[in-house]
Automatic annotation (TrEMBL):
Any GO BP: proteolysis
GO molecular function: metal ion binding; metalloendopeptidase activity
The name this protein goes by in its record: Putative Zn-dependent peptidase
Alphabetical keyword list: Hydrolase, Metalloprotease, Protease
Pfam families documented for this protein: Peptidase_M16 (PF00675), Peptidase_M16_C (PF05193)
Record domain Peptidase M16 N-terminal: where: 17-163
Family per record: Belongs to the peptidase M16 family.
Superkingdom in the source lineage: Bacteria
Cofactor(s) required, per the database record: Zn(2+)
The species this protein was found in: Nitrospirillum amazonense
Record domain Peptidase M16 C-terminal: where: 171-342
Length: 423
C-alpha cells in the first residue's frame, strides 16, 4: 500500500507492519521497531518492567553480547537508541544506506532473542535505580511524574515510566520474560524506515528477520479516568516548580489539533500569552510553557513554570487569570500565528530521516496508517477561533491538577486556585 507520498506499508502474515518513507536526496537510513506497549500495559506489581526490558534488550543475545551490539553498529559509523513511554517502546538507529541490513538485523536480534541474563539484570537494575534517583533529584523532571499521577491516580496511565524503586528492586528475569512474551508480538509491532531505502528490500529483510514473531495480541489498555487534584512536595530548593493542568482530549478526538493550537497560543513561544505576560511584562519566571499530551482515549493540558519562592504568590494567580480569560478573548491573528508555528514544525521535521521514521512508526501504532503531511496541514488549517474556544471551555470545565515542588509557603491553597478557575 502507498499513500502517494513515497510512504509504503506492507503487513506480513504474522501481523507485523512494515512502513517505509523514501528520501532519495540522502545517503542514510533511519530505521527501528516501534512496539505498541508501554507503562500503561504493566500490572501495578511490575511497574517499571517495560522500561527495564528496554534497557535489557541492549545487554546481549545468544548471537551478540552487549559489547558486540554496540561495536557492530559503531564499526559502520551508526548508532542505536531506545525509549519507553506510557504507550509505546521504540528501538531505533541510523546508518549509511549500505548498512541498513546490519542495523535491522541487530534490532531484530535484540527485540526477539535477548538473553535477559540474570547477572546483567542485576547490574542494569542498579543503573535504572540510579536513573530513578537522578530523576528524583531533578525537580523540573520529576514534577511531571507527580502531575501524571495526580491526574490519573491509582491507574496505569498515572504510574511512572521508570517505575518505583521498591518494585524495580525486585523485578526478576521471569517478570521480564513474561512481559516480553505477552506483549512483543507481530500485531503490536511496526518496522519503520526512512531515507535511502527501497520498500521491497525492507519488506524482504523484515520477513526474514521477524517471521517467527508470535501473532497474538490479546491485551487491552485499562481505560483511563481523569480525576484532577493537588500534590505538593515541600523541598529546600532555589526555585518553586509548578505544573497547573486540566483534562484534555485523546489522540483520536476531533479537537486534537485545536488543542495543540491552543497550547501554542497560550504558552508555545515567545509571542505566546503566558510568555509575554508572565516573563516579559512581569519578570516572574525564566521558564514558562504550556503543553498538550494526547493518549489513546485521554489527554492532559498543562502549564509548567519555575519561579523564585518570593514570586510564586503572584505567579499562580496571573497564570490562572490567563487561563480563565481565554474564553471570549481569542483573536484570529493569534490563532493564525499558532497555526503557522504548528505547520512549520511539521514541515521542518520532513528534513530529518529520523523524525520521519519515528513519525510513520508512531502513526502506524496510533492510527493504523501513515498520515500524509497534506492531511495534517489541512487539519491544522481547519482550526478556527471557535474550535480553540471550545477547547478552552473544556479545560475550564475540568477539575484542575496543581502540582508543586520546592519552597511552597507562597503557594495558594488548592481551593483558592480552583476558585480562580471558576470552580
Amino acid at each position: 500500500m502507498s499513500d502517494g507520498s513515497g510512504i509504503q506499508v506492507t503487513t506480513l502474515d504474522n501481523g507485523l507492519r512494515v512502513v517505509t518513507d523514501s528520501m532519495t536526496g540522502v545517503e542514510t537510513v533511519s530505521l527501528g521497531v516501534w512496539v505498541g506497549v508501554g507503562t500503561r500495559d504493566e500490572a501495578p506489581e511490575v511497574n517499571g518492567v517495560a522500561h527495564l526490558v528496554e534497557h535489557m534488550l541492549f545487554k546481549g543475545t545468544p548471537k551478540r553480547d552487549a559489547y558486540q551490539i554496540s561495536q557492530q553498529i559503531e564499526d559502520v559509523g551508526g548508532h542505536l537508541n531506545a525509549y519507553t513511554t506510557r504507550e509505546h517502546t521504540a528501538y531505533y538507529g541510523k546508518v549509511l544506506k549500505e548498512d541498513a541490513g546490519l542495523a535491522l538485523d541487530i534490532v531484530a536480534d535484540m527485540v526477539q532473542h535477548a538473553s535477559l541474563d540474570a547477572d546483567e539484570l542485576a547490574k542494569e537494575r542498579t543503573v535504572v535505580l540510579q536513573e530513578i534517583g537522578q530523576a528524583e533529584d531533578t525537580p523540573d523532571d520529576i514534577i511531571f511524574d507527580h502531575f501524571q499521577a495526580t491526574a490519573f491516580p491509582g491507574q496505569a496511565l498515572g504510574r511512572p515510566v521508570l517505575g518505583l524503586p521498591e518494585i524495580v528492586e525486585r523485578l526478576s528475569r521471569d517478570d521480564l520474560n513474561a512481559y516480553v512474551q505477552g506483549h512483543y508480538s507481530g500485531p503490536a509491532m511496526v518496522v519503520a524506515a526512512s531515507g535511502r531505502i527501497e520498500h521491497a528490500r525492507m519488506v524482504d529483510m523484515a520477513a526474514g528477520m521477524f517471521g517467527a514473531l508470535p501473532e497474538h495480541r490479546d491485551w487491552t489498555h485499562e481505560k483511563a479516568s481523569y480525576r484532577g487534584g493537588d500534590f505538593r512536595d515541600e523541598r529546600d530548593l532555589e526555585q518553586t516548580h509548578v505544573v497547573l493542568g486540566f483534562e484534555a482530549v485523546g489522540v483520536h478526538h476531533e479537537d486534537n489539533y485545536a488543542t495543540q493550537v491552543l497550547s501554542t497560543l497560550l504558552g508555545g513561544g515567545m509571542s505566546s500569552r503566558l510568555f509575554q505576560e508572565v516573563r516579559e511584562k512581569r519578570g516572574l519566571v525564566y521558564s514558562i510553557y504550556s503543553f498538550a499530551s494526547h493518549f489513546a482515549e485521554a489527554g492532559l493540558f498543562g502549564i509548567y513554570a519555575g519561579t523564585g519562592p518570593e514570586q510564586v504568590a503572584e505567579l499562580v494567580p496571573v497564570v490562572c487569570g490567563e487561563v480563565a480569560n481565554l474564553v471570549g478573548s481569542i483573536r484570529e491573528d493569534e490563532v493564525a500565528r499558532a497555526r503557522a508555528q504548528l505547520k512549520s514544525s511539521l514541515v521542518m521535521a520532513l528534513e530529518s530521516s529520523m523524525a520521519r521514521c519515528e513519525q510513520v512508526g508512531q502513526q502506524m501504532l496510533i492510527h493504523g496508517r501513515p498520515i500524509p503531511v497534506a492531511e495534517m496541514l489541512a487539519r491544522v488549517n481547519a482550526v478556527d477561533v471557535d474550535a480553540v474556544e471550545r477547547c478552552a471551555r473544556r479545560l475550564l470545565e475540568s477539575e484542575p491538577v496543581v502540582t508543586a515542588l520546592g519552597p511552597l509557603a507562597g503557594l495558594e491553597s488548592y481551593d483558592r486556585i480552583r476558585a480562580r478557575l471558576g470552580h
